From TrEMBL:
GO MF annotations, alphabetized: efflux transmembrane transporter activity; porin activity
Keywords assigned by UniProt, alphabetized: Cell outer membrane, Membrane, Signal, Transmembrane, Transmembrane beta strand, Transport
Subcellular location: Cell outer membrane
Native organism: Pseudochelatococcus contaminans
InterPro entries reported for this sequence: OMP_efflux, T1SS_OMP_TolC, TolC-like
Family: Belongs to the outer membrane factor (OMF) (TC 1.B.17) family.
Protein name according to UniProt: Outer membrane protein
GO cellular component: cell outer membrane; efflux pump complex
Domain of life: Bacteria
Signal peptide (from-to): 1-27
Transmembrane regions listed in the UniProt entry: none
Length: 462
């Protein structure tokens, strides 16, 4: 097989790695959806965000504690010695006083502080769930990019290695022609220089592949072995950009999280205002005092139930300032929602444009490859009859290589861009992609701890 045939074969192999296909990958190969499922199941980044949500869940039972009574037990014991001296008489008495008591406090009305604190905590949980969903989206996008980067860099390395083989053959042919006087020493030097440059490009391609493999290992959790073809997510995308913008503005987790943040801020205003309202509570206590000595033993039992009403009159301006501050914070959060909406819309437009551009780059690159293959073949034939120089052949070879690398890159970019659009509209999820992995239920821990009155063990037994 001639050198042009070997180059074409390598290019076909490289391109096949990146083309989306509905055909099943070999049984031993890792599929793209399988890799995404592994990242979803074992990503440390995702597990950190899940743990953060479980931390946020505990804000709700903490807020609910304001509805519940507090109960405290007290106890004391000691020794008291009395030495009385009067003329002609001295009296010494030693007592062992002790007491036991229990006190219960129950808030009746606290300006709706508890109610609004609970609602704020619940909004924090809902916001945390959306933040987790957004983290899942970022992880899946990074996983898809890592998968496609390995395929791209593998294909590019194969092209560079094959190019080295072609240039080595070209150098041998040039040296043979130089030995019979058909070309000059300059032609040999040009071939040698091009081969040295190709070796350098091969080293760069190998380094890029190693970097991509390391990133893949970090995100997916294992070293890539045999990867199947990449699969685009275009079938999950809306038909038009306008439809995508409507979906993104309505469903993107970043926007929904920001809206829940507004709810939290508004409830915090009411929590701050509650300090200006009357506070009503009930306190009940039962105490038993023991006063023992060597000659007598007394027990005094007492019980009280007290209603307490506290009406704030002036707090030095602290509460008023805290309320104003909370209102400003709520206003800031409402403005932040507009910022997030603009960011989401910009991301959708940019991702959509990138996807369309990548499709056009593929078409252009395919045309360039076909044209450069014809040009290289013609240049070689013309060089045989002396109408072209060795440098012309080398330049044509490099032009063809560059167009093939661009085609591989464009194919990678199209697949990744489809996931970027899905991420931008807020629908890049394990459910949408149909990943075969157990879904994490973000509400399970919440329901397990919301109603707990007692116990320090976490639901998983820690």
């Amino acid at each position: 097989m001639n050198s042009n045939g070997r180059t074409t074969r390598a290019a076909v192999i490289g391109f096949a790695l990146l083309v989306s296909t509905a055909l099943s990958a070999p049984a031993a190969a890792e599929t793209m959806t399988g890799a995404l499922a592994k990242a979803y199941a074992s990503s440390p980044t995702l597990n950190v965000q899940r743990a953060a949500l479980r931390v946020t869940d505990e804000n709700v039972p903490q807020a609910l504690s304001g509805y519940r009574p507090t109960l405290n037990a007290t106890g004391s014991t000691g020794i008291a010695r009395t030495d009385t001296r009067i003329p002609g008489n001295r009296n010494t008495e030693t007592l062992y006083p002790s007491s036991l008591g229990i006190q219960l406090d129950q808030s009746i009305f606290n300006g709706n502080r508890t109610r609004n604190s609970v609602r704020a905590a619940e909004s924090q949980v809902l916001s945390g769930r959306e933040q987790l969903r957004n983290t899942e989206q970022v992880l899946l996008l990074d996983s898809a990019s890592a998968y496609m980067n390995v395929l791209r860099d593998t294909a590019v390395l194969n092209l560079q290695r094959n190019n080295v083989e072609v240039l080595e053959e070209q150098l041998r042919q040039t040296e043979d022609r130089f030995s019979v006087g058909e070309v000059t020493r300059t032609d040999v030097a040009q071939s040698e220089a091009q081969l040295a440059s190709s070796h350098a490009q091969e080293s760069v391609a190998e380094a890029n592949l190693r970097t991509s493999i390391a990133t893949y290992r970090q995100i997916i959790g294992e070293t890539p072995r045999k990867l199947g073809p990449g699969v685009a997510a275009e079938r999950y995308l809306p038909k038009t950009l306008e439809q995508g913008i409507r979906i993104g503005l309505a469903e993107h987790p970043a926007i929904i999280a920001a809206l829940h943040g507004v709810d939290v801020a508004e409830f915090q205003v009411k929590v701050a205002e509650s300090a200006l309202y009357p506070q009503l509570g009930v306190s009940a206590s039962l105490t038993r005092n023991f006063d023992a000595s060597s000659t007598r033993h007394s027990v005094i039992t007492s019980g009280t139930i007290v209603g307490q009403l506290r009406i704030p009159i002036y707090e030095g301006g602290l509460v008023y300032s805290q309320t104003r501050q909370a209102k400003e914070s709520a206003g800031q959060q409402r403005l932040q929602v507009d910022v997030v909406r603009d960011q989401v819309q910009q991301a959708i437009v940019a991702a959509w444009a990138n996807l369309e551009a990548s499709k056009q780059r593929i078409t252009a690159a395919q045309s360039a490859v076909a044209a450069n293959e014809i040009a290289l073949s013609g240049t070689r034939e013309e060089a045989k009859v002396g109408q072209r120089t060795t440098l012309d052949v080398l330049n044509a070879q490099q032009t063809l290589l560059s167009s093939r690398v661009l085609l591989v890159t464009a194919q990678r970019d199209r697949i990744v861009a489809s996931y970027e659009v899905l991420h931008a509209i807020g629908r890049l999820s394990a459910e949408t992609l149909g990943l075969k992995v157990a879904r994490y239920d973000s509400s399970q821990h919440f329901h397990q701890v919301k109603g707990k009155w007692i116990g320090t063990s976490t639901p998983d037994g820690r």
